Amino acid sequence: MTSTRERQRAAARARLAQEMAERQDKAHKRRQRQAYIGAGVALLIVAGGVIWLVSSLGGDDKTTAGAESSAAPISCAWTEVPPDQRTPTTKDVGVPPTTTPPTTGTQVMTVDTSFGPVEVTMDLAKSPCTAEAFSYLASKQFWDGTKCHRMFPGMLQCGDPSAKGNGYRDSDGTGGPSFRYANENLPVDQRPAYPEGVVALANSGPDTNGSQFFFIYQDVELSPDYTVLGKVTKGLENIKKATEAGHDGAFDPSPGGGHPKSDIEIKTLTVAAPAA
After folding, report:
1. Rounded distance, CA 244 to CA 258, Å?
2. Beta-strand relationship, 106-113 and 179-180
3. For residue 247, what are the β-bridge partners?
4. Are 247 and 259 within 8 A, CB to CB?
5. Residue-level pLDDT at 53
6. What is the DSSP letter of 220?
7. So what's the pLDDT on residue 171?
8. 88 Cα distance to chain centroid
């Protein structure tokens, strides 16, 4: 028979075991609360860091505007054609006097042709160096009295200073100024890259832009290798009328196209001052 003393000892051991279990349970819960609190603090720190990062990088409209206004001006590089590489069709006009043209607003180029005037709007944010080059050449009357010397279906090419007079059909299309400049505003993400109304620069390879350009009078499929100067905003119907007679196939099969059957003369080409 179990003695009273043994029963008391067993009861004491049971109470001690229960107390130990309760202590362990409380300690476990305390550790959980601390972990939750720690995680919450970490989350607040991360969230605060994200908010700070967004504020620093994005900022409000005022901050963004300030960042944009403090952006470094663009710089244009005018590369002179070495004297030993010039040909009789190279027209020496020096180089534009500035390398930091305006990069906001627009300019309007007016091409007065024998079929009527054509206006081209140039976006200075997209093609500032090209607009500067054309402004400079226009100030030299570079294109006045020249004829558009080549066409393809949908495209009319102009700008060769040697394409003049009755003998312009003898032009090989290699004429240009005594300087070159880099590509810009290439329509790499556009389909089609050159839709109707676009005016783009002809070149003989990357960064060899000069004075020659072409009017796109209907959508054409071309690789996006040609700087977009601007878009015809008035008078595209005059280009379409000028090209109705087609071409003589003089450049077929390579590089293709030919002289326009109709004489298309650029009487004058002027570029207005930038508009805000």
Report:
1. 14
2. unpaired
3. 260
4. yes
5. 28
6. B
7. 73
8. 34
SS (H, E, C) 139-178: HCCCCCCEECCEEECCEEEECCCCCECCCHHHCCCCCEEC
The Cα 109–Cα 4 span in angstroms is 116
- In whole angstroms, what is the distance from residue 248 CA to residue 223 CA? 25
Residue 103, classified by CB atoms within 10 Å of its CB into exposed (0-12), middle (13-18) or buried (19+), is middle
pLDDT along the chain (276 residues), means of 10: 55 53 53 45 36 35 40 85 93 96 97 98 97 98 96 95 82 90 96 96 96 96 96 98 94 87 97 90
Q: What is the dihedral of CA 123, 112, 152, 190, to 10 degrees?
A: 10
Nearest to 272 by CA among 119, 128, 155: 119
Which pLDDT value is given to residue 18? Answer: 58
Tell me how many helices (H) and strands (E) the chain has: 4, 13
Q: Using the CB atoms, write b or e for 195-216: b if 16+ within 10 Å.
A: ebbbbbbbbeeeebbbbbbbbb
Q: Please state the three-class secondary structure of 35-90 as a single string.
A: HHHHHHHHHHHHHHHHHHHHHHHCCCHHHHHHHHHCCCCCCCCCEECCHHHCCCCE
